[in-house]
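User: Good morning. I'm curious how adenosine monophosphate would be positioned relative to this chain. Could you predict the structure with it bound?
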Amino acid sequence: MTLDRRETTDQQTLTGVRRIGMMTTVANGTSAPNKTGEPPAEPAIPQHHVETTDRDFRSLGLNAEILEVLAGIGFEHPTPIQADVIPDAIAGKDLIGLAETGSGKTAAFVLPIVQRLGRGKGVRALVVCPTREIALQTKAFLDVFRKSPLQVTSACLIGGVKIGPQFDQLRRDPDVLVVTPGRLLDHTERGTVSLRNVEELVLDEADHMLDLGFMPQVRRIVTQVPSKRHTMLFSATMPPPIERLAQRYMDDPLRIDLAPRGAASGIEHRLYLVDEKDKKSCALALLDSVPGSTLVFTKRRSDAEWLCRVLERGRHSVARIHSDRSQKHRVAALESFRAGRHRILVATNIAARGIDVQGIEHILNYDLPDTAEDYIHRAGRTARGAAEGVVSSIGTWLDKPIVRQIELALGHPLPRSEVEGVTPYREMRSLNERRRRSPLRR
Ligand code: AMP
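Assistant: Good morning! Here's the predicted structure, ligand included:
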């Protein structure tokens, strides 16, 4: 199988590039510019500045119903990735879209899927995403088509939330599933979902799924989907395991490359093992040494408060969210972090659910989470698209069991790291390991 490389230069696609203005949210076919500056109650499609081409959606081969929905939500011109992907995707060509988050890639695959769905029964399209936030954004965009004459229905199967309501969504016989890998497999193993009618498969942010250790699950999912299907894969970069995935499971895919040159993607995991008494100084040293927008997770509210007070005294710009704070304060903290007025956001695990902020460069686990799944979700908040991100975790010897679970989930060890001024905790090798290495046994 050869990959047809179609390089699309900025020159070709960005002729007449324009910047659209900022709207706040688009929900179910209506645009809702925000006059008060208040965050909307339930943002359906978060709106960000996006570069569009001077082409129009009609020229891409989209049908009248879809064009009407696009006009309703205020999408006037396609972005470069949409202009390049949509015609080939409508024609049913397997394709690899190399593009970063924020390029408009969601519409690049949702619009062709909606157009190709037809009136069959059962789940006919499956979108696999690395994180629940990305899945929810995709589901929000699909929901715009539920109320249109196309009546496309979808369900979102993501981890970290109760499974019961997902059974109800499935009973309503959705056309499209938007999923994170672990939760989908949970459903297929229980027999609550069948993938045998899937005709359209999308693997979104494949490099991010690789970083988060989801490749084995993704491969299992792909083998459960009928081999006669249309497959689209989106990724900011093509590291070898993604290249192999594409070679193995796609049919002569067309490659549409709009990723910025030299973009490196990936999450760098770092583990700082210290004594319990050194956790605080380790956190402060890390916040000083790693620049950029940082999200800190603590287990206890008291630690979140302590950290904020110390950081404020050290002239760090910091906001906080935890369950003792009112909803109004939490929204304000999130907004100021999102807008870049605060570099650091300190959050307890529960309060942090649903945080959707672009461009977080550093996740600091002041406490390790209780499950590997939570670690992966936290890590998923950084290194979106082509960006690079660092996930630093502070652990003590008591955390070794969860460290092992995280390493199993990621498929590699968490690199041990040290920060200046803090004495690292030296791990003892296990008895078995020491026996194996003992010269007496050779
Ligand atoms: P995505 O990369 O799919 O997450 O999209 C990034 C942002 O651009 C989202 O807020 C979309 O709602 C918005 N967007 C995508 N395509 C267009 C378009 N053609 N015109 C205006 N906004 C768009």
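The CA atoms of residues 136 and 170 lie 16 Å apart. Residues 301-313 form the longest helix (13 residues).
Let me know if you'd like a different ligand tried.
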